Amino acid sequence: MNHREILTRYTGNFIDELTKNGLTDAVISPGSRSTPLAITLAEHDQVKEWVIIDERSAAFFALGIAKETKRPVVLVCTSGTAAANYFPAIVEAHYSRVPLIILTADRPPELRDVGAPQAIEQLKLYGDYVKWFHEMALPEATPTMLEYVRSKAARAYYAAKEDNPGPVHLNFPFREPLLPDLSIKDIWGEKHEQSYIPTLPGKKKVDEHQLHALLHKIQHKKKGVIVCGPQVGDDFADGVIRLAEKWGLPVLADPLSQVRSGPHSKSHVIEGYDAILRNETVRERLKPDFIIRFGAMPVSKAYLFYLQQHKEALQFIVEDFNGFREPAGNSTTFVFADPTMLCKDLVKASAALKFEQSWLSQWQEMNQIAKKHLLYGMEEQITEGEAVRALLEATPEQSYIYVGNSMAIRDLDTFFMTTPKKLSIFSNRGANGIDGMVSSGLGAATGGKDITLLLGDLSFFHDMNGLMAAKQYNLNITILLINNDGGGIFSFLPQVNDKKHFEALFGTPMDINFQKAVSMYGGNYNRPETEAELKEVLYASYQHKGLSVVEVRTDRSTNTEWHRTKWQVIENELLGNEG
């Protein structure tokens, strides 16, 4: 058996095993050393390959696909700094719990540390940001080695999605020649109907003793709060709402919780809590006896202040499998269980629990006040908050919104009111970076549903080369670009008072004509001036095939004042109503 046949059978069995475990998508960046992996992936009829030239963009594109499908996605690149360009997306995948399988090609051992080109230290390149690393053996095609590659492929797929999902890394050293021989028979090895290593993963569940111990801690408490942070469970909303209705408690629902939209009841959902909790006096009047949080920490900084102000409240954080996400530093009981199953178990076991009825009413009344002022008015020149309001009205049923960080996610938090429309909200909140947002949104667009990417001008600029995927694959996406000519979020921070350095170091105005960039990638461009015009343009964009960019120009100073005025009016009425 010659080298090319050995190489082909080795990589062919590896790729085939990935598909037996459920792999459907692979994102490949061009390179020579990765040829065996790239060609066998492209040849396999169960794999959809996406070729993205820039590795940083490719990794975020894969992350977007994995978020949308909730399945591991393969990433393939050549040796050297190509692999290093994956790092930002791998960090994001680690913290936001997204399954990726990174396959990096490498020089063989004799070409390492001797000055060979494109040879860097790739062993454990991503450190603790991957759940598992393995240096693959040099290709052989003996029965034992083909079983070896199948076992590693199966383990990689399982490790990426088991418990808290995340990235895994396998490093492949290849000797030349690198071109596989697709003419040989049985490239994919023996016919296997299932994974080489079948797994039967279960869900975590608290036992009856633990359940009653939890209920015992809160049975004499009167004022509880249920908090839903970012999470992606499809059936979670129904479960947590049933629990809230059973107990008569408010649900503080983050925009990424998937609880603000859908057909379930929302009478207990408090979507305006960020505006409500900005005042210290109001926070004190809403002093809780206990807090139960599902999912990651909410976006709202006002909620963080609420936690810090009430450290004495009993706090419970529910995690699917493990993890200690509690940045406030409060004493906390961690409950490791499937959240939907836990909600059902708590409903069944808590018939005797009674909480203060006026507590829920107090939250609901404050929520109505906040919503009244947040939804009121229409400016002559569209504001950032109004742009988000328009988006939420125009976006179609069963569609996706992928939202950027900084001001974009905070405006979504403020203006995303409950709706019967079923919307899925994605964001890269693991590391909260602005990089890779265009690529992530386009990755999610590969699923074929209507998707709107909401982001600011700095995020758009930071990943403009990600637009190539829209042109290359004719992906349908609407990008709502909020352009305030710089970093708008810094205008809400103390740095804004440093008049000497603020614009250069924080405001960072670019004064770029983004229409030319959109045109370069074959996109459709519009720039509405009012909220009404924006809605019309958005409605039309969902009928347009391919890339649509809708740019809304705003002024940072005006935007800051508009937001603060809204919050002040809400605060005044909340304090006045409380007497």
TrEMBL record:
Q: What InterPro entries does its record include?
A: DHS-like_NAD/FAD-binding_dom (IPR029035), MenaQ_synth_MenD (IPR004433), MenD_middle (IPR032264), THDP-binding (IPR029061), Thiamin_PyroP_enz_TPP-bd_dom (IPR012001), TPP_enzyme_TPP-bd (IPR011766)
Annotated Thiamine pyrophosphate enzyme TPP-binding domain ranges read 437-552
The record's listing under Pfam families reads: TPP_enzyme_C, TPP_enzyme_M_2, TPP_enzyme_N
* EC class: transferase
Picking any one GO molecular function of the record gives:
2-succinyl-5-enolpyruvyl-6-hydroxy-3-cyclohexene-1-carboxylic-acid synthase activity
Show the catalytic activity. isochorismate + 2-oxoglutarate + H(+) = 5-enolpyruvoyl-6-hydroxy-2-succinyl-cyclohex-3-ene-1-carboxylate + CO2
Q: In which pathway does it act?
A: Quinol/quinone metabolism; 1,4-dihydroxy-2-naphthoate biosynthesis; 1,4-dihydroxy-2-naphthoate from chorismate: step 2/7; Quinol/quinone metabolism; menaquinone biosynthesis
Q: Per its Swiss-Prot or TrEMBL entry, what cofactor is needed?
A: thiamine diphosphate; Mg(2+); Mn(2+)
Which residue ranges does the record assign to the Menaquinone biosynthesis protein MenD middle domain?
204-403
**Cofactor mode of binding and number, as noted:** Binds 1 thiamine pyrophosphate per subunit.
> Recorded E.C. number(s)?
2.2.1.9
CDD domains assigned to the protein according to its UniProt record, in alphabetical order: TPP_PYR_MenD, TPP_SHCHC_synthase
Swiss-Prot/TrEMBL keywords: Magnesium, Manganese, Menaquinone biosynthesis, Metal-binding, Thiamine pyrophosphate, Transferase
UniProt domain Thiamine pyrophosphate enzyme N-terminal TPP-binding: residue ranges: 14-124
Say what the protein does.
Catalyzes the thiamine diphosphate-dependent decarboxylation of 2-oxoglutarate and the subsequent addition of the resulting succinic semialdehyde-thiamine pyrophosphate anion to isochorismate to yield 2-succinyl-5-enolpyruvyl-6-hydroxy-3-cyclohexene-1-carboxylate (SEPHCHC).
- What's the family? Belongs to the TPP enzyme family. MenD subfamily.
Q: How does it assemble?
A: Homodimer.
| Record protein name field | 2-succinyl-5-enolpyruvyl-6-hydroxy-3-cyclohexene-1-carboxylate synthase
